[in-house]
Amino acid sequence: MDIAVIEPGVIPTDNVAPDALKGIVRQQTNPKRWEAANWAPFAVAAASADIELLVQPGIIGTFSTDAGGTAYGMPHAVVIACSAGQISGLLKLAQQFHVPVTVRGGGLTTEGESVAFGGVLLDMTGMSRVLSVDKNKLIVRTQAGIFWHSLAESLRRYDLDYLSAPLNLTSSVGGSLGVGGIDVNSPRLGCSADQAISLQVVTPTGDIVECSDTQNTQLFQRVILGYGQFGVITEATLKVRPYTPLRMHYFYYSSLRTAIEDLQLLDAGDAADYSGILTMMDKVVNLLVAFDSDEREATFMASWRGRLRGHGEAAFTLLMGLHYGLRPWLWREALWLRERKRQLFPEFRRPEHIRNGLMHDRTVVFSRAVWKFWGSRQMVIPDIATSTEKFVDAVEQGNAVCRKYFGHYTLYCVGIRLREDHRQHYEMSCIPPDATTHAYGCEFEPMLENAVYSRDTLQSFKNDIYDIGVKLGGSYYRFGGMMKGYIRRVFGDAVVDRHLAMKREADPGMILNRNVIF
Amino acid sequence: MTAERNSIYGAEACSGCSLCLLVCPVWRSTFDIRLTPHGRAKALQHGATAFDVADSIDTCTLCGACEPVCPEEIALVDMVLALRRDLASTMPDRVGNAVVQLQQGVDSNSTTALSAYPTVLLADSALSEQPQLLQTVLALFSHEQAGLAADSGADIALALEAGASVPEERLNRFLAPLRTVRRMIVCDGVLLRALRDWLPRTRIDSLGEAASSLAGVRARLRPDDFYVIESRAYHADRERLVAHYDQLRVSSGCMMNLDLQRLAIPTTASHQWMPEKRRVDPADQARWILEGRVVARVVVEDCRDIAVFQRVAPYPVLHVAQLGDAR
Questions:
Q1: Is A60–B46 a contact, with Cβ atoms under 8 angstroms apart?
Q2: Confidence (pLDDT) at A4
């Protein structure tokens, strides 16, 4: 069979569309490895420019996959980032010799976006220093390879905290600004990408440029939520805020729809500082609500608590007992839920993080639980982002897909407050185009539980989830890498072609993160 | 080929989550993933040998902070020690200094009959070199009739850290008098780990835990004190000790060198092996530990940290045992 050669930057026919391969199980594979046409002269030039190319199998193997663990690829060399100047030199040479460069922060992608299929892998964690903290102006300047948690460690010395960041300790600042970054305070404070005031970016042609909403605006718009297509973020100036521990409340539901309606009710009314939904399948739906201050908590209890239809833990346990007591054929499920609760709940109540009823260091608490109870060498987390109005339907349909494929799973839902002045940032991103004040996202997280699933099965699951997004006119957090077959279906030819043209202009050699989007 | 080699030292379980980087002092100093548990494990998964990762394992400070955060529960300290042992078995010159000390050893005949003491203190080499402080430590536990072990096992501790093999005869000579002891207070974190394996029925506490458990010491800790936990012993038993130190922090109001994950930020001053390979400056670590803190006094568990903090802190630095002096 002849396989057509596809020039980089040309998006081929969508081979994962439902009607693309009649009667054939849809599958997606790793991109073809770059053939290293100009590697030798590139390596010589890099050595002359004092750019160290690490080629030992051990260091190359360190980056052979990402958090998803389903895409595997090897770079020809790894470069540990140390300065904007070094990256500038690297990208200039990469353009000259047409060598692909894949940029990696925490490597928490799941579709191979931070995996290099040949060429250079640029490890941004080498640039992890906090450069300055201004407690009066509530601003921090940091190198962009830093993990959010390391930034939090520095900020806490001054009783400060970042605004919002993924509930994962090893997400990097640059990576989150490039794709979004969602926290349980995103319904109020927006996504991580919206907290950037200005950035230092190395463009694909090697220029070092400072950009913001008022300076080099177009570059700023493209780099924020730009999936690494238009530059390497090397430094970021971010808004920060005074640190506060959380006053946590949990409400339990047995209906996804009811819980989501209550979540959206709270978000629309700005009733809580933090909110989100975390489930055990669709049986135990936990609406998490938290506050930065006693005043906000008191207002919630007086004005909003009575409007929520969820139960406290004791009442819900009783209801579940009655539910399963009358349905002995579901006792196996009940036992699993009970065991899951027994393992999970103490992790959210560890005494060293709870003081006088307040939760300290929420990201540590949540991230520890995430890695302990959801993390493994393989993670599949398809998602859907929609407008407020479409969200319940999207989650219910996605839930049905989860049930079809897996015995156990978790759903994580959270809202994202949008900034009207950042509309340009949102184009061709995880923010759905029809969302107004808030967008909503749901991650569908199957628990693989040491079972062995073929990659085709996992891909089919992801396709079934993403097909819902196409049908509803939504978007996705993870539309790159192995899922990029959906890009034209979701965003449409006009938008994609416009961005492709911008990409070609900014990156003539199409060398930067070439397997992610285009 | 050893069993450890067959299982690539436990590295096969590493999922590459990078959580160990967040707490690794070597990574904080270098931002070089090759010198971290993550980098070592991934290199081993991709065919690297102990020789290939020699630089990485020599720079490890054995602070142990990576172990409690590893979601795969890999024995990361043991991994480094096993790699060092394998390197030493093929390159004996690496551990020459440690072997010399072992050969010189300590004559157990000079050891007082330890069974006479309910509690025995095993001083490390640094404490042994400070007789006045050593007497202060002993005085702190005088109510328990604590005795000092003449054979502190400091040579064994160095050998363990270096990866040198400890002759069976030397080990037996060290352990024999300790087998009758009910409680041991051990200064060296690496030796403490090993002793818990060798003498599982004996109560073995670190000096820091033992001292900070005393009411007299706790009562003298002040809210403007900065208390520096010795990291090796703490991380070896973190799940239990996190509650101990949390309680100490709450009752005294003092600050501690605990990060947001409640791991102890080490100065790494206790890292004695291969100083030429050292990549972490203890003074830099001490500056980071104190950054942004308003402190009146520093209280340390590891006597090596006294000098480190005296270099960077413009306020008094004292050993935790010295808090008991005022009685």
A1: yes
A2: 56
CA separation for the pair A465, A41 (Å, rounded): 45
Per-residue confidence band for A5, with pLDDT thresholds at 50, 70 and 90: low
Q: Which of B19, B31, B246 sits opposite A126 (nearest CB)?
A: B31
Nearest-by-Cβ selection for B46 from A58, A82, A364: A58
Domains of chain A, residue spans:
130-242, 246-478
Which pair of structure tokens corresponds to residue A168? 């994962």
Strand pairing partners for A91? none
Q: How many residues does chain A have?
A: 518
Domains of chain B plus CATH, in order, are 9-90 (1.10.1060.10), 100-210 (3.40.50), 213-324 (3.40.50)
CB < 8 Å to A61, chain B: 42-43, 45-47
Band of the pLDDT at B313, cuts 50, 70, 90? confident
**Residues of B with CB below 8 A from A126's CB?**
31-32
- Minimum Cα–Cα distance from B11: chain A residue: A62
Neighbours of B58 (CB within 10 A): 21
Contact A377 B15 (CB under 8 A): yes
CATH architecture of A130-242: 2-Layer Sandwich (3.30)
pLDDT more than 90, % of chain A: 81
On chain A, the residues whose CB falls within 8 A of the CB of B48 are 56-58
CB contact under 8 Å between B45 and A61, yes or no, is yes
* DSSP per-residue letters across A185-247: THHHH--GGGGEEEEEEE-TTS-EEEEESSSSHHHHHHHTTSTTSS-EEEEEEEEEEE---EE
C-alpha A449/C-alpha A407 separation (Å) is 9
Which band of pLDDT confidence, cut at 50, 70 and 90, is reported for residue A10? low
**Closest B-chain CA to A376:** B15
Q: Is the Cβ–Cβ distance between A413 and A441 less than 8 Å?
A: yes
Q: Any idea what the Cα angle at residue A359 is, between residues A358 and A365, rounded to 5°?
A: 170
Tally the residues of chain B: 327
**What is the CATH number that goes with domain A246-478?**
3.40.462
CB contact under 8 A, B71 and A375: yes
ipTM value, please give it: 0.93
**Mean per-residue pLDDT for B115-139?**
92
In 3D, which of A295, A214, A201 has the Cα closest to residue A506? A201
Q: How far is B43 from chain A (nearest CA, A)?
A: 4
Closest CA to A204 of A175, A177, A230: A230
Are B61 and B25 within 8 A, CB to CB? yes
B157-193 pLDDT tens trace = 999 999 998 999 999 999 999 998 999 999 999 999 9
**If you measure CA to CA, which chain A residue comes closest to B15?**
A377
Whole-number Å distance between alpha carbons of B107 and B169: 12
Strand partners, B272: none
A240 Cα to chain B: minimum distance (Å): 16
Q: How many other CB atoms are found less than 10 A from the CB of residue B45? A: 18
Which helix or strand (DSSP H or E) is residue B251 part of? helix B238-252
Neighbours of A139 (CB within 10 A): 16
Sign of the CA dihedral running B151, B155, B158, B160: negative
Work out the minimum CA distance from A451 to partner chain B, whole angstroms: 16
DSSP string, B22-40: GG-HHHHHH--GGGSHHHH
pLDDT score at A26:
44
Inform me whether the pLDDT recorded for A387 exceeds 50: yes
Q: Encoding tokens for residue A43?
A: 């390596």
DSSP-assigned letter for residue B209: H
Contact A69 B19 (CB under 8 A): no
Closest CA to B308 of B288, B291, B276, B285: B285
Nearest CB neighbour to B291, from listed A62, A128, A157: A157
